[in-house]
Each structure stands twice: as C-alpha cells, then as structure tokens.
Amino acid sequence: MVKNVDEELSSIFIIFGGTGDLTKRKLIPAIYSLMYEDKLPENFTIVSIGRREKTDEEYRKEMYEFVNKFSRISVNNERWKKFSKRIFYKKFDFTTDDEGYKYLDSYLEIIEKKYSTGGKRLYYLAVASDFFELIIGKLNNNGMVNRVTGWQRIMIEKPFGSSLATARTLNHNISKLISEENIFRVDHYLGKEMVQNILAIRFGNSLFEPLWNANYIDNIQITSYELLGVENRGDYYENAGILKDMLQNHLLQMLTMIAMEPPVDFKPKSIIDEKVKVLRSLRPFTSESFIENIVRGQYGEGELNGMKAAGYREEDGVSSTSNTDTFIALKTYIDNFRFGGVPIYIRAGKRMNTKSTEIVIQFKKLPGINYYNEFNEIVHNLLVLKIQPEEGFFFQLNAKKPGSEFKIEKVELNYCQSCKYSNNSFEAYERLLLDAIKNNSSLFTSWDEVKYSWKYIESIEKEFKNNIPNYPNYLAGTTGPKEAIDLIEKDGREWWNAASK
C-alpha cells in the first residue's frame, strides 16, 4: 500500500448493517480489493455497526472468510493483516439507541485523530429502506453530518421508496437533513464495466454515433434473466415484484445510457441531465396500450439443471395465492426526435433457463437488398452488449460465404472483455465505493431520475390490478410465458439471445 494516494480519500467508511449479506459479500471484499491495488490510502478505516455481540478480532476473522470467498483478488495474508487492523466493529441498536450514536460519534473522532482522516466520513446504509430516514435523522440530531470539518456523504441502496409518493416523502425528509450532492443512491448495475462501456462505444466510434437514431435502428432489446428464484427474500419480493426490483431501477438505468443525447462533457451533472431527459420522454402506458404491450409472469414448479425447482408460491415468505410478478416483458417507446418510432423491448425474469443480461441494438436492413436474390439470407446488423455473466460485445455483419456461389453468411466480430481482463476488471461495488469517496456522482441515481422512473412505473402499476394473469404461467427453468414471444413476433421480430450463441 502506498502513501501518495490523494489525501482527499483519507476517510472513515461507516457501515450500518455490518453483519449483513451485502457487507460480507460485496462491501468488505470491494474495499479489500481497492486497498490491495493501492486505490485507497493507508489510513483509510472501516467501522462496522451491528446488533450482534462481537469483538474486533471476531469480526475481522469473520470478514476474512468472506473476503477469501468473494473478493476478485486472492487474499494475501500479509496485506490482510495490515488491512484488517483498520477494521473495527461496534455493537448498538441503531434503530432505538440514541446514546449509541453519541458514543459512535465520540469513537469516530478518536479514529479521526489517530488516523488523520480530517473529519471525512462515508456512511453506508446497508439496511432495509425503512430505516433510511430514521438513521439519517439520528445522524443529523447528533451532529454527525453537515460538520464543519471534512465531508460527510451517505450511500443508500435501492429501493428508494415503494411508489412515487413514498419516494417523494423520503426525499423531502432526508433532503432537509443532508444536501442532495451528498446523497449517493446506489444502483449497482451502473457500476458494471460494460454498462459504462456504453458511453465509450457510442461516443468513441464514428461507426456508431451517426447511426444511433430512428433512421438506422430497427429496435432495441434489453434482457435480464436470472437462474435464481427469490431465495430468502420472499417477504421483500412480495412487496416489490419484478417491476420494482428490476424495471424501476436497473433496466431503466441501462436504457438511459443507451438512449441519452451526447452530454456537453462527462461531468456528473451533464450525464445525469441527459439521462433524465430520456426518462421524461418515455411514453406512459394507457389501459389500451397496457393490454397490447405488456406480458406478466410468475414461475411455477419446474426443473433447473436436472434438479426440481420450487414454484414462487412455495418459496419462504410468499403467499400460497400470491399474484406477485417474477417476469415482465414489454414494448415501449421514447417520444423524442432521436428515437421516435423505434420500439424498445424489455424483459426480465427469475428462475429462467439462463443467467444473462444483455442489450441488443438491431439496425435496419438496407431497402435495396430486397431486389437482390443473392441477399435472401441476409440478417440484420446487430450490436450486442453483454453485461453479465460474460462481459463484452459483438457486432454482427453480413459477408460472402467462401465458395463458387454468391451466398451470404453472418459474421460476428466478438470482444470478450472478461476473458481478456480476467480478475483485473473492477467489480461494480469497487467502482461505486471509490467514486463516492472521490465525490463523483455520475454513476449514482439522482432524485430527478428516481422521480421520473417512478412516474413511468406507476403508469404500468395502475393497470396491474385489472389485468391479473392466471398464475403460475411459466415453469421454472424455462424461457418464460409464451405471450412474451408473441409480443415481439407479432411485430415481425424476434428476441435475440446472445447467451445461447
């Protein structure tokens, strides 16, 4: 570890929810990787808060096991020994114990003096969203934010509210306590390498940006399929469903990156402003367009990798008569000059037959090819961005097949980023944590983005109660409801699945 890292990064990382899965699987492994690669200074310190009784040493030993299991970088025992000495654990009930906050503040001041962090604090609320306002309020009441010395920032996980009204109330209440510029709303998809690569591919290649409009693009497809069911999150999923768990945040965020206008620069405000314009331009659903353009689904008992997979209604914490959606497919439009008339197909589901997140830009065929018999087998040019599990992209072209006859075959120019940079590419949480420490908010969701995404989601949600399918309507381990295929095929198109290529 080096000492010449920007001193502005010298700070304390305070985690509320220090014994939770997010901390164990993502946050501590991410910080370890950053420290290992000298992205953070030697005096960067972690203070984890939980309700369980643990000593510092017990907590460090527990975190070692998770870092060893989940970090992209193998644990170096010498590095870990040095790193772990700056991990501390404090027990108190952050929901009820006001005295605990006073003690925590005093303890943080001791740490600040010992490690010369200058009052710079990053609070991460790795807890249920019900506690966001409560914790921020108690931090404010005890003078732990808006301090004169250093900076204080707060990172919060999704969901941000459960509706536009609750999100608006939550934002109003916490904005009175800490300024918008110091609130970092996490959407971990924005930290994924290939999501960020969208900007480089679009604006760094003269081949694409001139064609990035309705004159040349036939349709856009966004797919996010998961093999997993709801696991131990049944209670949460009953209230969220696929609509709030995936569409309101991850999927719409990827769409904004694809569809945004070129920003004046790559500063956070410029990027966020263009993303907001996309969300404002999304065509809301009506009762008529809902029926024609949305397919809902819930998985039933099926088979996955040769093993029996329970149906959603059999999962822990789920009602036996639940009508919560675990799958959605829709067709929508962006009503602006660039993409007017271009259909956008989005689908997401749990307990599918594959794990794959990808974005497909399908370009139009040239009108002249219809006059050449030799071009009967021509396919659309495609740009496929593979977000996970494989990272990379490929471009599908048409070329002559070798031989005496003039026959066309498709050719794929393939780039596998995760193959080339195996274990050397930042994980999403590494990038997000480092950017929050650096005060770079471009990869975080602004209030305006939250507001307009909720407005769009509510145009869908209001029709849900009037159009409940007969659940379950697809088997676990399959491609989802047949109606999702019909949704795109009735337009003379088909879903593209790069995962099977």
Walkthrough of the structure:
The protein is globular, with a radius of gyration of 24 Å. The model has no long low-confidence stretch (mean pLDDT 92). The protein is built from 14 helices and 18 strands. Helix content is 35%, strand content 20%. The two termini are 42 Å apart. The chain folds into two domains: 7-157, Rossmann fold; 190-493, Dihydrodipicolinate Reductase, domain 2 (2-Layer Sandwich). Strands 8-12-13-7-14-15-16-17 form an eight-stranded mixed beta sheet, with helices on both faces. A six-stranded parallel beta sheet has the order 3-2-1-4-5-6, sandwiched between helices. The chain has a two-stranded parallel ribbon with strand order 9-18.
Strand arrangement within the widest β-sheet reads: 8-12-13-7-14-15-16-17
Instruction: Based on the coordinates given, report the CATH architecture of the largest domain.
Output: 2-Layer Sandwich
* Rg, Cα atoms, Å: 24 Å
Beta strands, count: 18
Helix-strand makeup class: alpha/beta
The CATH class assignment of the largest domain is Alpha Beta
What percentage of residues falls in helices of 4 or more residues? Answer: 25-40%
CATH superfamily of the largest domain: Dihydrodipicolinate Reductase, domain 2
Write down the overall geometry.
Answer: globular
Contiguous helical run count: 14
**Ranges with pLDDT <50 over ≥5 residues?**
none
| CATH topology category name of the largest domain | Dihydrodipicolinate Reductase, domain 2
